[in-house]
Protein 1
Amino acid sequence: MDSKDFQLLVNLYDDARRSYSFLGKRVSLSAPAVRDRLIRLKRHGILKGFMLVIDSSIFDRDDVLLFFDGEFSRKSVHAAFEVPDISWVAWKVDGRLHLRLWTKDEREVTDNLISILGVRPSTRAFRSRKKLKKPLSVIDLLIMDSLVDDPKVPFRDILISTGLSAKTVRKHLNNLLWKKSMSIDPILGAPTNSGELIYPIAVAGRVSMEQIVGIMGESAQIHYTIDPPMKHVLCRADSLTDVLTKTRLLEKIKGIKSVTITLDREVLISTNIRHSLIRDEIIKSR
C-alpha cells in the first residue's frame, strides 16, 4: 500500500463513480493501473465495497453518530442493526460499535440501543436536519433509488431501472453528487497483510488539518461533524508501530480530546431504510 494507493482511496471519497481514466488523471496513473490497484486493494481486504450516503435532511431527519465502547459480539451487532432508523453499523476490529441514525426521535432509538447493548454511548455526533430550499425531483429520487443496492452499478443499469435518457441521468446524477445530496463512500477494512497501512482515524476536538498532517504525515480529511467537532481522517503509515507512535503524539496536541483508530471488521448497511425513505418521498412528490 504505497502513496498512490492512498491517493486513489482519497479520490474515491470524492466521487467513486468516476471512470478509471478520470481517477487515473487525478493520481497520475493509467486507467489499467487504477483498475489493477483497486483489484489488489480488494484482494488485500482494504477496499470491501461501497455505500450510498444520503443527506438525511432530504427525509426531514436528523443525522446522528453514536459510538459504543466495549467488546461486542456479532450477535449484539446484528441485534443493534435491527433497531428502526439505523442507517449503518460498523463493528470495529477491537469490538467497539459505531452507528449512524437517520431519525426524528433520537432519544427513543438511543434507548433501544442501550437496552440491547447494555451500555450508554461514549460519544455522540449530531447534525440536525436543515430546511431544503427545494425538494428533490422525482427524477433525482429515482436515480438515487437505483444506486441503493449497488452504488457502483453500471450506468446502463441505471437507465434501465429509471427509464430515463442517458443525458437526463448524467445531468441529475452529477448534480446530486456535486450538491452533496448524496455521496458514495468506499468501505474500508483491516488489511490482511503486514507492512504499510492505510487506515481511518476519528479526531475529536478543535484542531486543524495542518496540525494533523504535521504529525500523521500523509493524511486527508474525508468527513467531519460540527457537534461535537470531529474530523474523520484517512492516513497512511509504514507499520503498526508507526501508527501507534503517531497517534500518541497527536493525542498530546492542545484542543484534541481523543484520537481513535477506526478500522472496521464488518459494516452492515440498511438498504431497506434507504429504499423506504426514498420511495416515500417519490409518493409525496407525485
Note: The longest helix spans residues 271-285.
Protein 2
Amino acid sequence: MVSRKKTRSIYQLKITLKDIRPPIWRRVQVPSDVTLNYLHWVIQFSMGWSGSHLHSFSIQGVEYGIPMPEFGFDGMELQDERLVKLSKVILWEKSKFSYLYDFGDSWEHEILLEKVLEPEAGIAYPICIKAKRACPPEDCGGSWGYQELIERLQDPEHPDHEHMLEWIGGVFDPEDPEFDEITSRLKRIPKDTTHFEGYF
C-alpha cells in the first residue's frame, strides 16, 4: 500500500463580536492544524484588539486558555491552548464556538466554521478576506459602553462629546475596519506563538 501525505485543510472562519448592532465581524482563512493559541492571535489581529487582556475559548463545554496559577487562574480547569490544535476540537462545517476577550469588558466572539477548503497555491495563510466595521476601542466598557461611546461621539451637543473625542485620540470611524492593516498584522504572527507577545 502506498502511503499518501495528508494535505492540511484550510478553515474559513467567521468571527462575530456578539451583542453589537450593526454587527462587527471578520472572515478569515487559517490552516486547520494551528494551535488555539495561534488562533487567538489571528482573532486579535483581524479584529483589531491589542492582546493586553486575558482571554479564553469555550468549545463544546471545555475551556481553553493559558493557565496562570500565579494569578489564581489554575482553579478554572483551563486546558492549555498552546497544546491543542484547532483541527482536534473543531471538525465539522457549521460548528460554532466562543472566544472571550477581556474578562472585565467581556467581549464575546462567536466563531463559525463556514467552510473546510483545500489550500490555494501562492496564498500565505492566515488571511482575512472580508471585514465589517471597526473594532471597539479597548477598555470602553464592553458592548454597552461602546454603544454609549458611539452616541456621544456622534452628538456634538452631548456634554461628554469633547472628552470622549479626546479619549479616543481625536478620530474614530466605526464603519472602517481598516482592512489593509489587518492583512499587515496577520503577516507578523510567527509560526510558533508559544512566547509571542503580539504587539503591533
Note: The beta strands are 10-17, 24-31, 55-59, 62-65, 79-80, 96-101, 107-117, 127-132.
Protein 3
Amino acid sequence: MKEMGVALAQFQSTPSKEENLEKISKIISRLSGISLVVFPEFTDLLAPSDISRERLYELAEYDDSQFIRGVRRVAMEHGIWVAVGVYERSDEFPRVHSSVYIIGADGELRAKYRKSHLFDALGHKESDWLKPGDEPPLMVDVEGFRLGVIVCYEMRFPELARYVALSGADALIVPSAWYRGYNKEEQWLTLTKARALENTMYVLTSNQIGNTFAGISVAVDPAGVMVARATEEEGAVEARVDQGRISRVRAALPLLEQRRPELYQYK
C-alpha cells in the first residue's frame, strides 16, 4: 500500500492575477515531499463586487491564458501536481465557469472540471454569472492514486461524493470559496466529515480565507477523523493519503459493500 503527500493551500485571492500567481509560487516553493498541492476556487482573481459580467468574462481564464501558463510553469519547475480553481470563459457569453484545472508535475494540463451545482441559496445566486458544467465529478489518477474532484457548494450533494467513491477514489478533492455566515463554519466541518465517513475515503479541502470567506481548509480521513486543519491565516497544511488506512477502515466498516441500491432507487 502506498502513501501520497498532499498540501492544501488556504489562500486569499486579490484583484491582481500577477500577485496571486506569485503567492502560488511562494507556497509551492516551501513544500517538500508533496506530490499534489490544491488551491481554492477562484484562486486566479478576487472579482470586485461591482464588476460587470462582461468584464469578468474578459478577465476569465482559458486553456492557454497567461495565468494558466504561469501555473503550468510553476508546476513544472517544482515537479509537483497542481489543482487550482479559476474563473473560466464559457461558450455562453457573458457567463463563466467555476473550473478546476489539474496540472501535471510535467506542467501539462491533465484534466479540467467545471462546477455543475451552483450556489443559488442563502441569498446568493451564482447562476446569474456562472454557467454550470454538465459532466459528473472528475476522476483523475495521480501517481497511483485515484482522486475525485468537486467544488465548494457541491459538498452539500452527497450523491456526488458517493459517485466518486463508487468510481474507486482514494480521496475527494474540494477546492472551495465557502462564505462566512451564521453556523456556516460548523456546516462545513459537518459536511467534510460526513462525506469522508459515509464513503470511507479521504476528503481534502482547500478554501479561500479573508474577504468574505471562512477558510477552514481541512483534511479528513476515511473514518471521519480530521487529520489536518489550517489556522485563520494563509498558508498550506499537509496531509498524507494512505491506501493502507483506507483498506483497514473499509475492512472494519464495509459501507460501500453493504449497500443495497435496489431498495432505494429514485422514482
Note: Helices lie at 17-29, 53-59, 66-78, 158-166, 184-199, 243-252, 255-258.
Protein 4
Amino acid sequence: MTLSRGWAWLQDYAYVAYWQVHGFLFRDDPAPYLQAAGREDQPVLLIPGIYEKWQFLKPIADDLRQAGHPVHVVEPLGYNRGTVAKMAELVSAYLAAANLQNVTIVAHSKGGLIGKYAMTMPGAAGRIARMVAINTPFSGSVYARFFLVPSIRALSPSNSALRSLAAELSVNHRITSVYSSFDPHIPGGSELPGAENIELDLMGHFRIIGDSKVLKVIRSVLSGKGASGN
C-alpha cells in the first residue's frame, strides 16, 4: 500500500508538471468553449484550485464541450491565489455580467470552496443550480497549517473563514463531492455533510481531474442522474 501510494504521489506531480507547463506555453483561448451547441440551457462554469489557471481543467472543458455544454471560465481568477471570498466575488460578477442561469459549477480543490461560497451569495445564488467539486478540502487540510504562504494556510481546518463556510449547510444538498480514495493533500478526505458524496477508487489530488470516472460523474450530474448514473 505504501509503495502504491508513493507511486500515485509521483504520478500526481507529473500530471501537475505537464499541465502547468502546458498552461504556460500554450495560451488556450476560452472563447471556443462558449460555442458548444445542444446544451445551451445547461452552461458550465469551471473553477480551478489554488495555483491553477483554468487550463488545468482543460480535460473537463474538452469533454463538456464535446457533449454540447457551453463552458465558461473566469479569467480574472488567474492562478487563484486570493481569498475564497474575493475569488467568489469575481465568480459572482462574471455570472451577472454574462447573465447566466441554471449554471453547473465544476471545481477542483479550493475551487469547490469558492463555488460553495458563491452559492451562498445573494447575487449569484439564484444563478447556480448545482456544483460538482473534485477533491475539495471542505473541512480543510491539516497540512495547510505548516505553510507560511497565507493563501495555503487559509485552508487549515482552524481557519475561521473556512469553519464558517463549513457551518453553512443550506446549499450542501446541491453539491456533489467526488474524491479519491487516497488524496495525499487532503488526508481527512472531502466528504461533505448533506451532499452527494462519491468516493472513487482512484489515487491522487490532481490526476483525478482527467480520469474517465470523474468525467462520467460530471456528465451524470448534468443529466440529472446523480450518483445513480454511475
Note: The mean pLDDT is 89.
